[in-house]
Specification:
The complex is a heterodimer of chains A (325) and B (520). Chain A is built from 14 helices and six strands. With 325 residues, chain A is α/β, with parallel strands linked by helices. Chain A has one domain. In chain A, the strands form two sheets. In chain A, strands 2-1-3-4 form a four-stranded parallel beta sheet, with helices on both faces. In chain A, strands 5-6 form a two-stranded parallel ribbon. In chain A, strand 5, helix 13 and strand 6 form a beta-alpha-beta unit. The N terminus of chain A is likely disordered. Chain B has 520 residues and is mainly alpha-helical. In chain B, 67% of the residues lie in helices and 0% in strands. Classes of the chains: A alpha/beta (325), B mainly alpha (520). At the A-B interface, helix 1 and helix 10 of A face helix 1, helix 9 and helix 20 of B.
Chain lengths: 325, 520
C-alpha cells in the first residue's frame, strides 16, 4: 500500500511531497526509540542504584552480593527489607548475616532469581531464612501483583531473555507498559536523589540489605483496630516449595512469617495452617509498632525493628544446624 | 472510546486509516461506508445499546429530510414535518438530559422526598441532535439539499466530532464528502493532521489533567474555601477547562485532517479575548455560530418585524435608546445565552452560567453603544494601548472565571460559596490544601505559571500550523503574522519535537481521563 504523494492540493503550501514523507518517517522513529531506551539505560551498571525505583538500590544489592559468603542469608519481601536488621543479627549471632531484599511485587516477578544468582557466586550458607508477610506466602502465583514495576526493572537488568518473555506472556500489559512507567519513576527518583545528601546504595550496603524507603510513613493508629481481612484463606505453596528447593545437607531453611498487628481480628491470621509449610505462627505486635500502610499494616516503625529482629534471632538460634553454632 | 487511550491510538485509529486507504481503491461510497461503520463502532465501544439511539436518530431525521424535501412524495406542508422532527428530536434530548432533573426539581419544590435517578446521558446527544436539526431547518428553507444516506450517516456520525463537537454544518461538510479526488491517505494531510492531534493530546494529558487534581481538591473541600485556596482552585479549573476543550478540539480537527477532511475551527485562544463578545467568538465557536444562526438571529428578526409593524425603528440609532437597546439587544442576547446555558445541562447552575454571560454580553454591548467620547486608539500612546489591552484581557478573564464557578460547581450554593471565597469572605487561609504539603503547592504554583504563560504568551496550534490551512477557515485573530521559527514545517526538527511530545503524552495516558465536554 502506498500513500498518495503527488498532486498536492492547495492546502499544503509550497512544501515538496517528499518532505512530508521524510517528516512522517522521523515522526515514526522517535517514539519507538524513546520506548526502547529504558531497556538500554537499565542495563548500564549502577543505573538503578542512583536512578531506579525507590526500592531499586536494595534489590540491586541482592544481585551484587558476589563474594559475600554469608553464613545466614535472608530472602523475602519488603517486610524482610524493612522489619529486620542484619547488622544486629550479625553481632548477636557472631555470624555474617546479609539480606537479599525484595518487595511483594518484585518477588512475584523475579521469583528467586536473585537467590540463584547469589548461590552461583558464593559458598552455600548455613541457613536461608525465607521472611515473608502473610500475602507473600504464595508469591509465585499471585493474580494481582502490586507494585510490579521494580520487579520488572530487575528482570530487565538481570533476567534472561526467556524469563522476560515468560513474564510478557503472563502479564502482557505490564510488560508493554514498563518503558512508559520508567520515565515518571526515573524523574521522581532523580528529584529525590538531588534533594538527598546520602546516596541510597550506601545506606543499603551499610545496613547489609536493610533499607527503609518508607521511613517518613506515620505509625498505624493505636487502640482497637481491624485488619483488612475478610476471612479468606492464604495459600502458602510458594513458601513450602521454597523450603523444599533450598534445603540441602549444607543449608537449612527457615520460613518465618513476619509479625502482624494485634488487632481484634488477628485470629483470622493466627488460625491459618502455618505448620503445613512448616512455619511458626506469626508474632503479634502492638498496632502502633506498624507503619500506616495503604493496603495492610506489614512494615514496622524503626523503633520496633530491634525487637522484631531479636525475635527472629531467637527463631534462628533454634533452626541453625549444630555445625554453624 | 477516548482519543487519549491506547485502544484508540494503537487499535482503532490505525484500523480506520488502513481501511480508509483500502476502501479508497474501490469507490467513494466504500470509503464513506467504511468511515460510517468505524464511527458507529467508535460510538458502540462506550455503551453498545446506545448505538441504537444514534441510528434511530439518524434514521428519523433522514426520513424527515426526505419528507421535507419531497423525496418521499406527500401533501403535508414541509413546515409541519420540520416542526414534528424538531419536537421529536428535542423530546428525545429532553428525556435524557432534562426530564429526570426536572422531576427531581419538582419533587424538591413539592417537598415530596422522592428522588429519581438520572438515566445515563448518551454521549454526544446534544451534538448530533443539534447538527441534524440545523440540517432540517436549512433543508426546509431551501438552503440545503437532500443527501444520499451514506453521506448523511457520515456527516452525523463521523467519529472525530461525534462525542463533543465541533458542531458541524452541512454546508461545510457535504461538499467535502462529495469530492471524488479525496479518499486516499495523503502524506501532507497525515503529517499536518497527526501533528495537530499530537499537540491536542499533549494539551489534554500533560496540561489539563495536571490542573484537574487541584480543581478537584478545591471543589471537594469540606466547608467554605478561604481566599487563597479559592483562587487556586478556580484558576486551576480555568486552565483545566481551557486545555481540555482546546486539546479535544485540536484532536478532533487533526483527526479529520488525517482523512483529508477539514472541520470548522472551534477554539481560538479565548482567554486572550479583550471583551466578552470577543470571548464568545473564540470559545466553542461552532456553538456560538449555531445559536447565533438558529436562535439569536431568528429571534432578533422576529422582534424587529414586530417593532416595524408597531411603527418603531430598528436602526442602529434605535438601538442606542434605552427602550430600543432593551428590545433589540438585551432581550435576544439574554434569551440566547439562557438557551446556551440550558444546552450545557439541566439545573440552575447552567441557567445562571448562561444568564451571567448574557448579562456580560449585554453590558459589553451597552458599553460599546452608550460610552461617550471614547478615546481614539490612534491618539493613545503605545504604552497606554498596551495597558488597556492587558486590563481588558484580565477583566474579561476574571468575568469568565467567575462564571466558571457555576459551570463546575455541584450546585449554585457551592458556586456562590466559591465566589465568596474568592472575595475573601471566608478569610485568607493557607495556600495549600490539607491533603498536600507546601512543596506540592509550590509545584502547583509553578505549573499554573507555565499554564498561563502558554495561554497568554504563545500562539495557538492553528497559528503554528497556519501555513498549511489546518481548518476550514482561520479566525481573524489567527491570521496575525508570526515569527517563521514558530510556524510548523515538515522538517526533521519538528518531527523530533512532535515525536517526543507524542511519547510524553503516551507516558501520561496510562490513566486516561474523560473530556469535560463529554457530559454535554
Amino acid at each position: 500500500m502506498t500513500l498518495e504523494s503527488d498532486g498536492l492540493n492547495s492546502q499544503t503550501g509550497p512544501e515538496s511531497p517528499w518532505r512530508f514523507g521524510r517528516y512522517l518517517r522521523w515522526l515514526a522513529i522517535v517514539p519507538p526509540m524513546l520506548y526502547l531506551l529504558p531497556l538500554v539505560l537499565i542495563r548500564i551498571p549502577g543505573y538503578e542504584s542512583h536512578f531506579g525505583s525507590p526500592f531499586a538500590p536494595a534489590l540491586e544489592y541482592a544481585f551484587d552480593a558476589a563474594g559475600q559468603n554469608a553464613d545466614i542469608v535472608i530472602f523475602g519481601d519488603s517486610a524482610a527489607m524493612i522489619n529486620i536488621d542484619p547488622v544486629q543479627m550479625s553481632s548477636a549471632l557472631g555470624l555474617k548475616v546479609i539480606n537479599l531484599p525484595n518487595t511483594a511485587g518484585s518477588l512475584s516477578v523475579t521469583g528467586d532469581i536473585m537467590l540463584q544468582n547469589y548461590s552461583r557466586h558464593n559458598k552455600p550458607p548455613h541457613l536461608i531464612v525465607g521472611y515473608f508477610t502473610l500475602h507473600s506466602l504464595d508469591y509465585l502465583h499471585r493474580k494481582a501483583i502490586p507494585m510490579v514495576y521494580e520487579g520488572q526493572e530487575m528482570l530487565v537488568d538481570h533476567g534472561a531473555f526467556a524469563q522476560n518473555m515468560d513474564f510478557a506472556r503472563s502479564h502482557p500489559s505490564d510488560f508493554l507498559l514498563f518503558p512508559l512507567r520508567f520515565y515518571p519513576t526515573t524523574v521522581v527518583t532523580l528529584v529525590r536523589t538531588l534533594a538527598s545528601h546520602k546516596p541510597r546504595s550506601q545506606t543499603v550496603i551499610a545496613g547489609q540489605g536493610h533499607f527503609d524507603p518508607m521511613s517518613t510513613h506515620a505509625a498505624f493508629p493505636s487502640g482497637p483496630c481491624q485488619l483488612p481481612l475478610s476471612g479468606e484463606d492464604f495459600p502458602m505453596d510458594s513458601a513450602r516449595e521454597f523450603r523444599q528447593k533450598y534445603t540441602t545437607p549444607q543449608t537449612a531453611v527457615l520460613v518465618y512469617v513476619s509479625p502482624i498487628a494485634a488487632c481484634t481480628n488477628a485470629g483470622l491470621v493466627t488460625s491459618q495452617p502455618f505448620a503445613a509449610i512448616p512455619a511458626a505462627t506469626p508474632r503479634l505486635l502492638p498496632p502502633s509498632s506498624f507503619k500506616s500502610d495503604a493496603l495492610f499494616p506489614a512494615h514496622l516503625m524503626p523503633a520496633a525493628v530491634p525487637g522484631a529482629t531479636a525475635q527472629l534471632i531467637e527463631a534462628i538460634q533454634k533452626a541453625l544446624p549444630a555445625t554453624a553454632k | 472510546m477516548l482519543f487519549n487511550s491506547y485502544t484508540f491510538l494503537f487499535g482503532f485509529l490505525p484500523i480506520a486509516l488502513v481501511g480508509y486507504q483500502i476502501a479508497g481503491h474501490f469507490h467513494r461510497k466504500a470509503v464513506v461506508a467504511w468511515l460510517g461503520l468505524m464511527s458507529i463502532a467508535f460510538y458502540a465501544y462506550w455503551r453498545p445499546p446506545y448505538v441504537l439511539l444514534l441510528l434511530a436518530s439518524i434514521a428519523l431525521n433522514y426520513l424527515s429530510a426526505a419528507l421535507i424535501s419531497r423525496h418521499i412524495p406527500n401533501k403535508i406542508s414541509s413546515r409541519i414535518w420540520l416542526w414534528l422532527a424538531i419536537v421529536l428530536n428535542l423530546g428525545v434530548l429532553g428525556y435524557f438530559k432534562y426530564f429526570f432533573p426536572l422531576l427531581n426539581f419538582a419533587a424538591s419544590v413539592g417537598n415530596s422526598g422522592r428522588h429519581w435517578s438520572n438515566v445515563v446521558l448518551p454521549l454526544g446527544i446534544s451534538f448530533f441532535t443539534f447538527t441534524q436539526i440545523a440540517y432540517l431547518v436549512d433543508l426546509q428553507q431551501g438552503i440545503a439539499v437532500q443527501e444520499d444516506l451514506s453521506s448523511y450517516i457520515l456527516f452525523v456520525s463521523f467519529f472525530p466530532h461525534l462525542i463533543a463537537g465541533p458542531i458541524l454544518h452541512h454546508k461545510d461538510m457535504m461538499p467535502q464528502f462529495r469530492q471524488d479526488c479525496l479518499y486516499r491517505l495523503r502524506k501532507d494531510d497525515l503529517a499536518v493532521g497527526f501533528s495537530w492531534f499530537i499537540m491536542g493530546l499533549g494539551k489534554k494529558v500533560l496540561l489539563a489533567d495536571t490542573f484537574a487534581s487541584t480543581a478537584t481538591l478545591a471543589y471537594a473541600f469540606p466547608g467554605p474555601l478561604p481566599a487563597l485556596l479559592a483562587w487556586r482552585g478556580l484558576l486551576c479549573y480555568a486552565l483545566q477547562l481551557y486545555f481540555d476543550f482546546s486539546g479535544y478540539s485540536d484532536m478532533a480537527l487533526g483527526l479529520a485532517r488525517m482523512f483529508s477532511i477539514d472541520f470548522p475551527l472551534n477554539f481560538a485562544s479565548p482567554y486572550k479575548s479583550t471583551s466578552i463578545i470577543d470571548f464568545w467568538q473564540r470559545w466553542h465557536i461552532t456553538l456560538t455560530n449555531y445559536i447565533m444562526a438558529y436562535v439569536y438571529s431568528p429571534l432578533q428578526f422576529w422582534i424587529s418585524r414586530r417593532r416595524q409593524e408597531q411603527g418603531k425603528k430598528v436602526s442602529r440609532k434605535a438601538q442606542a435608546t434605552p427602550e430600543g437597546f432593551l428590545n433589540l439587544i438585551a432581550l435576544p442576547t439574554l434569551f440566547t445565552l439562557f438557551v446556551a446555558g440550558l444546552w450545557h445541562g439541566a439545573g440552575w447552575k447552567f441557567i445562571i452560567y448562561g444568564l451571567l454571560h448574557g448579562v456580560y454580553i449585554t453590558v459589553n454591548h451597552a458599553w460599546r453603544i452608550f460610552r461617550r467620547n471614547p478615546a481614539e486608539p490612534a491618539l493613545r500612546t503605545p504604552a497606554s494601548r498596551r495597558a488597556t489591552h492587558v486590563l481588558s484581557v484580565l477583566v474579561t478573564f476574571l468575568a469568565v472565571m467567575v462564571s466558571q464557578a457555576f459551570f463546575r460547581a455541584a450546585d449554585c450554593s457551592q458556586a456562590v460559596s466559591m465566589i465568596a471565597g474568592l472575595c475573601g469572605f471566608h478569610g485568607r487561609g493557607a495556600f495549600h490544601f490539607p491533603a498536600e504539603g507546601t512543596p506540592m503547592a509550590a509545584v502547583d504554583l509553578l505549573e499554573m505559571a507555565i499554564g498561563f504563560a502558554i495561554v497568554w504568551g504563545l500562539p495557538n496550534t492553528q497559528q503554528i500550523l497556519s501555513r498549511f490551512h489546518p481548518s476550514l477557515h482561520l479566525s481573524q485573530w489567527d491570521e496575525a503574522a508570526l515569527p517563521p521559527r514558530i510556524l510548523w514545517l515538515p522538517s526533521p526538527v519538528w518531527a523530533i519535537v512532535m515525536g517526543c511530545l507524542f511519547f510524553a503524552a503516551l507516558v501520561a495516558v496510562q490513566n486516561p481521563s474523560t473530556f469535560l465536554y463529554f457530559q454535554f
